[in-house]
UniProtKB/TrEMBL annotation:
Co-factor requirement: heme
Entry annotated with the keyword Metal-binding: yes
PROSITE patterns attached to this UniProt entry: PROKAR_LIPOPROTEIN (PS51257)
Family the entry assigns: Belongs to the truncated hemoglobin family. Group I subfamily.
Protein name: Group 1 truncated hemoglobin
Stored Pfam families: Bac_globin (PF01152)
Cofactor mode of binding and number, as noted: Binds 1 heme group per subunit.
C-alpha cells in the first residue's frame, strides 16, 4: 500500500510538471505572430527600463528573443519545442531579485496590453510563468 501511494504521488508530481495539453492559450495570445510581437514588445520596454536594463547589456539579445518566443509558445501549449538552457542555468549569476522579476512582468503585461490581449488571458500566461520565479531569482 505505501508503494501504491508513492506511485500515485510520483504520477501526480509528473503530471503537474507537464506543459499544457491544449493550445487554447497559445491561440488566445495570437499564435506565433502574436507571441513574437509580445516578446519583442516586452524586450523593447526592457531596453527603456532603467530598473533592469543593466542585466541585458552584454547578452546576445537575438538569442534571448528567439528562446523567449519558444519558451512562451511552449508554455502556452503551442507547437514549439523549447531548445534553450534551463531557467536555473540561464539566470545563474545574474543575482536577480523579486523586484527584477516584478519589473519584467510589468513589461510583459504592458506588451500584452499593447497587443490587446484581454486581462484574463494575460493572467493565464502569468500563472504559467509564476512557477519559474524561484528558478530565476536568487533567494
Ligand atoms: C518567468 C520569468 C522568465 C522567463 C520565462 C525567462 C526566460 C528566459 C529565456 C528563455 C532565456 C534564454 C535562455 C537561453 O539563452 O538558452 C533567458 C535569458 C535571460 N534572462 Fe530571463 N526569463 C525570466 C525572467 C527574467 C528576469 C526577471 C530577468 C531580469 C530582470 C531576466 C533576464 C535574463 C537575461 C539577462 C538573460 C540572458 C542571460 C545570458 O545570455 O547570459 N530573465 N530568460
Amino acid at each position: 500500500m505505501p508503494r501504491l501511494i508513492l506511485l500515485v504521488c510520483l504520477l501526480l508530481a509528473a503530471c503537474a510538471q507537464q506543459p499544457a495539453r491544449d493550445d487554447i492559450l497559445y491561440r488566445q495570445l495570437g499564435g506565433a505572430p502574436g507571441i513574437t510581437r509580445i516578446v519583442e514588445g516586452m524586450l523593447l520596454r526592457v531596453a527603456a527600463d532603467q530598473r533592469i536594463v543593466e542585466h541585458f547589456q552584454r547578452v546576445d539579445i537575438q538569442r534571448v528573443r528567439d528562446k523567449l518566443i519558444e519558451k512562451l509558445c511552449a508554455e502556452a501549449g503551442g507547437p514549439c519545442v523549447y531548445t534553450g538552457d534551463s531557467m536555473e542555468e540561464s539566470h545563474k549569476g545574474l543575482a536577480l531579485t523579486p523586484a527584477d522579476f516584478n519589473a519584467l512582468v510589468e513589461n510583459l503585461q504592458a506588451a500584452m496590453t499593447a497587443e490587446a490581449v484581454p486581462i484574463p488571458v494575460q493572467n493565464r500566461l502569468l500563472a504559467r510563468l509564476a512557477p519559474m520565479r524561484g528558478q530565476v531569482i536568487d533567494r
